[in-house]
Design brief:
The chain has helices at about 85, 90-105, 110-125, 135-145, 160-170, 185-200, 210-215, and strands at about 1-15, 20-25, 30-35, 55-60, 70-75. The protein is α+β, with helices and mostly antiparallel strands. It folds into 2 domains: about 1-75, Nucleic acid-binding proteins (OB fold (Dihydrolipoamide Acetyltransferase, E2P)); about 85-215, de novo design (two linked rop proteins) (Up-down Bundle). It has a 5-stranded mixed β-barrel. Helix 5 packs across helix 6.
């Protein structure tokens, strides 16, 4: 059955010579896996650029509930990336957010509120001026959809320094450009929030993108 939905790219891995297995968080069907053949062919309807992390797509899919791998009928950009693609700071944040989503979103169940939140956040990352606090605010707000939203900073960390900076993120009302004052504060907040996610997420493991962010926000 053909179905229309919007989707957000979570991951893509090479499959055989010319295919991809793509995991997409969809608006109406939750997290789904797709096999996409011939992506490097000149005649392909689906160029590899469609499947970069966090790409926002309008999709028509062949949907059968019991099929582990779905197929795409049509795809086009909902909002093509410009700044995320060419700003290494934004692309670093995008990779971090993607890895967080890979570790926390695992259900093939529709959650339209979560999808709307993620879609809006990606648009803000694309359209707003670069903010060094974007990923930190994102981590705080995402918790309300994952079932472990903290009520105060003490639920996140017992470290006094970390509490002070995390509290600033908890009380921020919107994605201000600079919620925290320094990269030292950002690193403290990031450590506290990642540890909090790890404690509340089964098989969370390590974050490969964390090293990139720590280099990006090396204290000045």
């Amino acid at each position: 059955m053909l179905e229309k939905t919007r989707g957000l790219i979570i991951s893509s891995i090479k499959y055989k010579e010319n295919s991809l297995i793509v995991r997409i968080y969809t608006e109406y069907f939750g997290l789904q896996s797709f096999i996409v053949n011939g992506v490097h062919s000149k005649k392909s309807k689906f160029p590899p650029s469609f499947f970069q992390p966090l790409s926002l797509l309008d999709l028509i899919i062949y949907y059968k509930e019991n099929n582990a791998l779905k197929r795409l009928s049509e795809a086009k950009y909902s909002h093509p990336f410009k700044s995320i693609t060419f700003d290494y700071r934004k692309s670093s944040i995008a990779l971090f957010i993607t890895e967080i989503l890979q570790k926390t979103i695992k259900e093939e169940v529709s959650d339209e509120a979560l999808f709307q939140f993620l879609f809006r956040q990606v648009l803000l990352l694309e359209e707003l001026p670069y903010s060094p606090d974007f990923h930190l605010y994102f981590l705080v707000k995402l918790t309300q959809f994952l079932g472990f939203q903290p009520q105060n900073a003490s639920e996140i960390t017992s470290n006094t320094r970390e509490k002070i900076v995390v509290e600033k993120l908890l009380i921020a009302e919107h994605q201000e450009m600079y919620i925290l004052k320094s990269n030292t504060e950002r690193r403290s907040a990031l450590t506290a929030l990642v540890n909090f996610y790890a404690a509340n997420t089964e098989n969370f493991g390590t974050l490969k993108s964390l090293k990139v962010l720590n280099e990006l926000f090396n204290p000045l």
